Batch of 2 targets.
Target 1
Amino acid sequence: VREATLEGQRIACHGPGFTLDDLRLALLGTFQPSNALAAVAAARLMGAPDGAVREGLERVRWPGRFQVVGRDPSLVLDGAHNPGAASALARSIRALFGDAPVTFVVGFSRDKDARAILAALAPVARRLILTADDFGYSPEVNAAVVAAFQTGVLRYASLMVKRPAAEAKTE
């Protein structure tokens, strides 16, 4: 990685029999250069010309994966749905935003490892806003929030619960 900004990344890719320097990678995140290297190597094996590889890396978009949708304040969308993805998100946030205060708005499906995801995000969070569907929070999410407070990695959280549609209509 030669440069990483909110505009994209400048990278170089080297592999058996090829070197491509000064590539512009539109995707953000500390995890994307290694993904780009795999894509470049596959493209080279398939005989893709260098120009097509360069254009592909520059034009690729992946909505909801470290996607910057707002500035001042910055707003980043990321669908980190497992502990590894949450760790990558936390590293990427620190790499691009330094020690800037971060607020996470997070929602979990019941089948997700909420404790491990929150453990990865909490160290970079100033605030955490949890959202829930009509069924509320699972016991695992509640336990994960309590654990984050008990260990001191989280200092502020708020909970938002979507009201059932029938309740909302009667008001």
Note: The longest helix spans residues 83-97.
Target 2
Amino acid sequence: TYANFDDIPDSGLINDGKSISLWFNPQSAISNGILIGATTTDSNIYITNSTTISMEERDASNDTTVSWTVPTIAINKWYHLVIVFNDGTYTLYLNGALISTQSEAAFDGIIIDRIGGSSYGGDVHFDGIIDEISYWTKELTLADVQQKSHDYYLLNLSIYHLYEDCYFSNS
């Protein structure tokens, strides 16, 4: 199952000068588990496998994927994920550490309105817990990410959702 996340301005578009942050805890082996996705387009941020996190945008004119190699993601462990969007570059942080910055000029951004899955192109869901999704109207810095990884702060925070005991499953 998945939950709606329709509070993001501009029809859910996350692009240049913005950031998204969330906590996740996988409950089973990971295979294309969508953390956040969309209803009407194939825009997703997902865990491809235990060492890859990807972001994709697919529509009639564009099929673009940006992927990051990450340290092995274990089952039943919490992770803090941040992606920063900056003019064709996309920086991924995991647990307060910079993983890498990828460039992809063809990537326009992603449209997000689902948590834990996507209904576009079939039902693919994340089997685990997702919490504290934050949408930022600024590019978070390493210092911002490290602060967020350790405690809460509300500098330029546009939307904050706290999901208590919200469990997503692909069964």
Note: The first strand starts at residue 3 and ends at 4.
